[in-house]
Design goal:
The chain is mostly helical and 91 residues long. It is built from 3 helices and no strands. 78% of the residues lie in helices and 0% in strands. Helix 1 packs across helix 3.
Length: 91
């Protein structure tokens, strides 16, 4: 492989790795948002937050089911750890 081709391959690998890291970050954000939204109570939600909650709900509703499932799977251990902390269970 020529030197220019090696540089191109290395640049492509770095770009793919960066995109995969960004994807994982977005999936974690989606998962955390989904869990947060699922635990919201409309009774305790301030009226000023209704529009934001509606936007979040619509965004989550447009996601393909497999993406949402992957996002929830990714954050599940974090949620379980937080639930254990809240209940006083040792980590």
């Amino acid at each position: 492989m020529a030197r220019g081709e090696t540089n191109d391959v290395n640049m492509l690998r770095a770009e793919i790795e960066m995109l995969m890291n960004e994807r994982e970050s977005l999936l974690r954000t989606i998962g955390a948002s989904s869990v947060f939204f699922a635990n919201l109570s409309a009774d305790t939600l301030p009226e000023d937050a209704y529009d934001s909650a509606d936007v979040l709900a619509k965004c989550l509703d447009t996601l393909p089911e497999d993406v949402l499932r992957e996002a929830l799977t990714l954050v599940q251990p974090l949620v379980e750890r937080d639930l254990d902390k809240a209940s006083g269970k040792p980590s």
